[in-house]
Amino acid sequence: MNTSASRVAKTILFWFSIVFLGLMLWKLSRANSAATHSDQNTDWTTIILNTAPLILLVGFCLLLMRQMGRNKAWSRNARSASRTGIGYDLHRLEAGRKLIVGGIELPFDKGPVGHSDGDVLAHAVCDALLGAAGLGDIGTHFPDTDPKWKGANSLIFLEHAKKLLAEKDFAIEHVDAVVITERPKLGPHFPKMREALARALGVPVEKIHLKAKTNEGVDAIGRGEAIAAHVVATISRP
Ligand code: MG
After folding, report:
1. What confidence score (pLDDT) does residue 44 get?
2. Looking at the structure, do residues 99 and 199 belong to the same domain, yes or no?
3. How crowded is the C-beta side of 228, counted as CA atoms within 13 Å?
4. Which pLDDT belongs to residue 77?
5. How far is the CA of 225 from the centre of ligand 1 (A)?
6. What's the 120 CA to ligand 1 centre distance in angstroms?
7. Do 66 and 137 lie in a common domain?
8. Number of compact structural domains in the chain
9. How far is the CA of 113 from the centre of ligand 1 (A)?
10. CA of 238 to the centre of ligand 1 (A)
């Protein structure tokens, strides 16, 4: 039962109880008056029989109202939520392409192969947010078969994810990311990346946390052939 329907039902029950109580008191008063005039004694049996339905009704109403309150609290609790989503992405690196990470272009001789700008961090953040809200993944909303997204700035994906979350009343609480690449060093660029990501997501920069790792020379990332990102995002709804 929604809030307005619950309020209407409570109001009806309240006034029904008041009217019923008035009628019972009036009837009781008349019965007592007749008894007083007839034999000057109070007929306690009549009083009990007359008040019993009223007591039952009031008890029922109180029970019903308490149950309504519980249902309301339950539906509120069911809606409120704190959720976590995970995102992962990897792109191959090739010579002669721009290296864009977290919305920032970094000076390097290689860049990611991808349909959009190949921003591995933005893609993983997008997936983490969409996953937390149960809204699918980046491929659902921005398929790499759509020419509209060819070479697109991946911050657009984050702005769109933010809107989708807002439509469901979700707020972004925290984004924690690890970017893995052998080169270049990412740490010096983190302040600008955090600003760009925070701006796209409409959150304070403090809510974006970035970390950098190498792969210790192991596998494709270690050989400098790829870049990857892992992201955990937390969202909440009041
Ligand atoms: Mg990607």
Report:
1. 67
2. yes
3. 16
4. 65
5. 15
6. 5
7. no
8. 2
9. 9
10. 31
Residues, Cβ < 5 Å to ion ligand 1: 89, 123
Q: Which long-range contacts (CB under 8 A, 24 or more apart) does 159-166 make?
A: 159/200, 159/201, 161/126, 161/129, 161/130, 161/135, 161/201, 162/129, 162/200, 162/201, 162/202, 164/130, 164/133, 164/135, 165/129, 165/133, 165/135, 165/235
Report the separation in Å between the CA atom of 184 and the middle of ligand 1, taken as the mean of its atom positions. 19
What is the CA(170)–ligand 1 centre distance, in A? 24
Span from the CA of 119 to the centroid of ligand 1 (angstroms): 7
**Alpha helices per DSSP H over the chain:** 3-39, 44-79, 120-132, 138-141, 155-167, 190-201, 219-222
Residue range(s) defining the domain that contains residue 176: 82-236
Domain CATH code at residue 156: 3.30.1330.50
The alpha carbon of 169 and the centre of ligand 1 are apart by a number of angstroms equal to 26
Give every residue of the chain whose pLDDT is below 70, as ranges. Answer: 1-7, 28-29, 31-50, 73-78
What pLDDT is stored for residue 2 in this prediction?
55
Ligand 1 centre distance from Cα of residue 181 (Å): 15
**pLDDT number for residue 187:** 96
- Residue 221 makes CB contacts below 8 A (sequence gap 6+) with 90, 180, 181, 182, 214, 215, 227, 228
Q: How far is the CA of 140 from the centre of ligand 1 (A)?
A: 13
- Give residue 213's pLDDT: 98
Among residues 79, 104, 126, the one where a domain terminates is 79
Alpha carbon distance 185, 38 (integer Å): 104
